[in-house]
Automatic annotation (TrEMBL):
PROSITE patterns: CRAL_TRIO (PS50191)
Protein name: CRAL-TRIO domain-containing protein
InterPro entries linked to this entry: CRAL-TRIO_dom, CRAL-TRIO_dom_sf, CRAL/TRIO_N_dom_sf, ER-organelle_contact
Domain CRAL-TRIO: 88-233
A GO CC annotation given for this chain: endomembrane system
Superkingdom, taxonomy of origin: Eukaryota
């Protein structure tokens, strides 16, 4: 009897997990280069590895390579320990935030200048939060280029965002909107387009104020752009919806137990049709690019706690700031 599409995908998922487990057992990549939370998620939550499989046309070899590099990058970038206190100046200025019915990430490029620190961390914070809370649900990136000039056009940052959507958060991006791009920066986006895969190029669209409503519902378009939305992002709003830790962080990954569980469940059919219906069409992705950001990162341990001003924080975030201020320097990057 022929397998259904769901059962076939489940079989590929088991093959992928066995290869990952074999690499960890033989090369010990799990010891220092991979987060325990990520290992738990890979082996206990189907949606995450499946999002990679779908993005790479169910090619186990390519998916395996991408996931290994993604796991290493997540540990080196400290994705689980991005500090809101580091990001507060950028959040206050509204550099990037999530808003809208269809989970739009608004990126106001005029609030960024070349060489500015932590902009990449802020983008990853929102992509991570969206992906892990909504399990790789579709997302739109909207680059607001209005009033931008050459000093705002950071090619390295945008290339990093493109690469992150391709390798680290695959199968999520459904639209890439460039809003009110000045003529001065037209050549820059032509260059950026050459760095995208053909699939991502098809998602790229240039929109103006008159056509924005065709992509974003009027209730979620700011009034300054002809919409109906009075929304202004604030730290108070962020504090009201700070997510809890992922459930995978409460699990303890055990290689032997996982191997036994996979063997016991190998005959179980995969029936999560809702997941496949929500992921959209398959997309092919090549893996020819360098997956590490060229610029050096500033770790949380390099921050001087005395420069953090409590008085500038909203009331809801002050307990978090208090905990950070009283954390020993050696543990500062680990506290949350």
């Amino acid at each position: 009897m022929a397998m259904t599409a769901g059962e076939e995908c489940y079989e590929l998922l088991q093959v992928l997990r066995k290869r990952l487990r074999k690499k960890m057992l033989t090369q010990s990549i799990a010891v220092a280069k991979v987060s325990k939370n990520d290992l738990n998620r890979i082996f206990t939550e189907d949606w995450w590895p499946l999002s990679f499989l779908l993005a790479y046309h169910y090619d186990v070899d390519v998916t395996y390579s991408v996931i290994v590099e993604c796991l290493k990058w997540r540990r080196s970038f400290c994705v689980d320990n991005i500090s809101l206190l580091e990001l507060k100046p950028l959040l206050d200025r509204g550099l990037a935030y999530i808003h809208g019915k269809d989970c739009n990430v608004w990126i106001n490029m005029r609030q960024h200048v070349i060489g500015q620190q932590n902009s990449d961390k802020l983008i990853i914070y929102w992509l991570e939060r969206h992906t892990m809370e909504l399990q790789a649900a579709p997302i739109t990136l909207l680059f607001d280029m209005s009033l931008c000039c050459l000093q705002n056009m950071d090619l390295d940052l945008i290339k990093f965002i493109i690469r992150s959507c391709k390798y680290y958060y695959p199968n999520c991006l459904t639209s890439l909107l460039i809003f009110e791009n000045p003529g001065l920066l037209k050549a820059s986006w032509i260059l950026l387009r050459t760095w995208m895969s053909p699939e991502m190029q098809r998602l790229l669209q240039y929109v103006k104020r008159s056509s924005l409503s065709a992509h974003v519902p009027l209730p979620y378009i700011p009034k300054r752009y002809g919409g109906q939305d009075n929304f202004m992002f604030t730290m108070d709003e962020l504090a009201r919806c700070i997510p809890l830790r992922s459930s995978s962080s409460e699990l303890i990954y055990n290689q032997q137990d996982t191997l036994q569980n996979d063997t016991a469940n190998s005959d179980m059919p995969f029936n999560d049709t809702t997941y496949f219906n929500n992921l959209g069409p398959r997309r092919s992705v090549t893996f020819e690019e360098n997956t590490s950001r060229g610029t050096s990162l500033t770790s949380a341990s390099q921050l001087i706690p005395s420069i953090i001003k409590r008085n500038g924080l909203p009331q809801a975030l002050r307990p978090l700031a208090e905990a950070r201020l009283h954390t020993p320097i050696k543990d500062y990057a680990k506290s949350t």
